[in-house]
Structure formats: structure tokens, C-alpha cells
Amino acid sequence: MKEKGLHPKNNFKNGYNFDELIVKNPALKEFVAKNEFGTVTIDFSNPEGVRELNKALICSLDKISNWNFPKENLCPPIPGRLDYIHYLADLLSFKGEAKILDIGTGATCIYPLLGVSAYDWNFVATDIDLDSLDIAQDIIDDNKLRGKIELRQQLKEENILKGIIVDGDSFTAVMCNPPFYKSAEEAQGANGRKSKNLGNNAVRNFAGNNNELWYIGGEKAFLHNYLYESSLYRTSSKWFTSLVSKKDNVKSLEKSSKKLGATEFKVIPMQQGNKVTRIVAWKF
Prior knowledge:
The protein is an alpha/beta fold. The chain has one domain: Rossmann fold. The chain is 36% helix and 19% strand. It has nine helices and nine strands. It has helices spanning 18-24, 47-59, 78-92, 110-119, 130-142, 184-197, 210-213, 218-232, 248-259, and strands at residues 32-34, 40-42, 99-103, 122-127, 149-153, 171-176, 237-244, 264-272, 275-283. Strands 5-4-3-6-7-9-8 form a seven-stranded mixed sheet, with helices on both faces. The chain has a two-stranded antiparallel sheet with strand order 1-2. Helix 1 (18-24) crosses helix 2.
């Protein structure tokens, strides 16, 4: 099954070899079967199957052999997350050591793992949830990456970069996958609609705890707060970047970035299957 639109360097741009993936994660085997078209695949409405597939995908990459986290945490789709890493590398357009700040890394520590695997980057990864950081640290230790990935806890919900960036920090780029929703209720409503569309009444093809899925004011409020705080730390990173799921948020971000003195603002389109999203990037 080939994924259309993935970055040319993405390991999964030509689809999945399920025989090889089952070797990496034997638990995947029970979910793999031929569909009505004779294609070997999994049932993507089954959250357990999706989880085991993504576990197999990440464990097929260099430097990663273990990826264990609780079922209530969001299971990120590896091909799409890997695309962010590759497009960020294109933006940085240099070969050499890079130090990346990942905002809201979550229990899966997904972007640092992929960045270390693909480009041997160094990371500082943050989250507000201490339990998520404990799980992320276990994953880092299991993969012997303590020297590559440092974790920091954000202690205040209203802050994004404040309390994280300290004197002496110098980052090549900041990256972020912001919460989509304005409240837990909105997130649950979207989850219900997605499950219904997939023909699955189980409440989770997407799991996720509060801080992973929602932020007061939603994606727009988060992004504008992040943009403002980046102007306070303009010399601490060469680039500030974020995924933006809602296209309507891009124009207001660009307008605000100019008011705050950004010297460059870019929009980088991404596509995985039928899902179209984008990275926004700015610098001072």
C-alpha cells in the first residue's frame, strides 16, 4: 500500500513490506490480512492494529528498537511525523550538528526519536505532563539515547517557551505539533465523528490525554502565544516552526509575525494520503 505525497526521503514513500514489519514487531501479524481488493493491509479502524503497525514502522528505523507507551496516549502516525523531520532538514539546508527544541513531545517522544534516527540531531524535548516525560525517559533509556535527547518539564500551562529556554541555549530550530481543540468536549466530539466515519464505535482510533489534544483557545490561540514568545527568544533559535492543521490560521500568523519583527515567514505544504497539512516557519 503506497502512501501518496510523502517526502522523497521518507522510508515509507513506497508503502509497507508487511513481512519485514512483522519481523520487527511480531504483534502486528494478527492484524494483517488481505482486503476485498486482494491487498495486504490492516484494518485502519482498529486502534490496536494501527498501534502495532506504527510500532513496527518506527522499530524498522535506525537506532530505534523499543517504543512502549500506555494505550491512553496518542499514537502518532510514523510516516507523517517523519515527513516533518525531513522537511525541517530541507529548511535548515546544512549538513552538520543540529540541536532541536521539540515543544510538547508527549509520552512517545516521537520527533526526537525520528530526528536522531534520520539525521543524528540532538534534542531538548518538553512537556507539561510529568507522567508523559517519565514514559518518554524510559523510551530514551531503552534505546540508549540519553546522550542525544534531554527532557525538560514546562511547569506553567500558559507558557510555551518561557521557563524552557534558559541562558546559553542555542537551537538550530524549534518544532511543535500543537493541540487541535479548544476543550476536552470538542476533542471528544471530533473523536466520535472520526470513529463513526471509520465505521468503528470504539472510542479510540485516536487516543490522547488532555494536554495532547486541546489547549484553551485551540490551535489558533496556541500558535499565536508560541509566536509571541518566540519574539522574546529571537536569538535563541535560527528557526521557529510548527505544524498547522487549520489553513485559516496561517494568514493571521503571517500578519502577526511581521508585526513582531520576523524577517522571514514560510509555509511548507505536506501530504499523507488524502490528508493535507502544512508547516509554518519563521525567523528573526
